[in-house]
Amino acid sequence: MKIYLAGPDVFLPDAVEVGRRKAAICAAHGLTGLYPLDNAIDLTVPDASRQIFCGNEAMMEAADAIIANLTPFRGAGADPGTVYELGYMAGRGKFCLAYSNDGAVYADRLSRSMDVRSEDGRLVDPQGLTVEDFGLPDNLMMIHALELHGCPLVTPATMPVDIWHDLAAFEACVRMAAARLIAT
Amino acid sequence: MKIYLAGPDVFLPDAVEVGRRKAAICAAHGLTGLYPLDNAIDLTVPDASRQIFCGNEAMMEAADAIIANLTPFRGAGADPGTVYELGYMAGRGKFCLAYSNDGAVYADRLSRSMDVRSEDGRLVDPQGLTVEDFGLPDNLMMIHALELHGCPLVTPATMPVDIWHDLAAFEACVRMAAARLIAT
Fold first, then answer.
1. Would the pLDDT of B49 be above 80?
2. Which of 3.40.50.450, 3.40.50.80, 3.40.50.2300, 3.40.50.150 is the CATH number of A2-102+139-183?
3. Which of B83, B122, B125, B139 to mutate to test the interface with A (most CBs of A within 10 A)?
């Protein structure tokens, strides 16, 4: 069974090594991890970004499931590129799993970086845009997609010191994927 | 032909009115706009967020196409909830369109809000995470998904004064959707 390994992990300085560790964890549970950087793309060609897209899409087609890293990326929410892939896999009817190494409620996390206040019964940010206030760790579309198209978001009981390299929550997803995909 | 109207517009103080304006533009071009807030959800019930998800998913199933507002939201990139929906619609094989009222290159936009520097041939943010540097306005997954599953991202020649209420780029998407969907 093949698992597409989505996440902003590809942006880490040691992105290739993180992919190797994730694939090894999959292998230990009888699964095959497909990591975007396994596609050999020549980054110097003019259409490199399009080739990356096509490589990722082909990997998603080949996979039975996705494990997405939804740890907040450059702000209070998940990496949009990763979220696109989660949506795509849900749309393709594949089994959806994800984790975030920051399990805080979205509104609480946001209020660490900007002024979030109550106004006319809504929680709003400094631009006056509503802040989702359902007690969820991120936008409800991702959270409920996971519940209804796979397994609920996995978060650690306490935030790991190194949110980009701690793979305990990832391994919990792999275990759930193995239990579900190998059994069926 | 039905178009799902995705975007952080639902978070605006005048979210309902913006939806009405978008639906009116669709109607003027012979299309039916489906706006998330058209679903009547009781926000006081415990599973309100799940009901919103299910309502949105049902609307997406009913739609032939999506027009997603990818204008940067609380940071340098698009709203993850909207991006999830774009991915889902691409996965369902629906026709994908989107616009952003900020057409700047992602790396340039990011450098307005944080220190972006070159390091070992990579562009990196203050956390040392790679900054996508393909000259695109947002993450390559969304940009190329639009090219390959619908129409290229629409951006205005100059950023409108009111990025949340200017609907010229939206209307350009509606025109393209009408040309494509009504013709076929």
1. yes
2. 3.40.50.450
3. B83
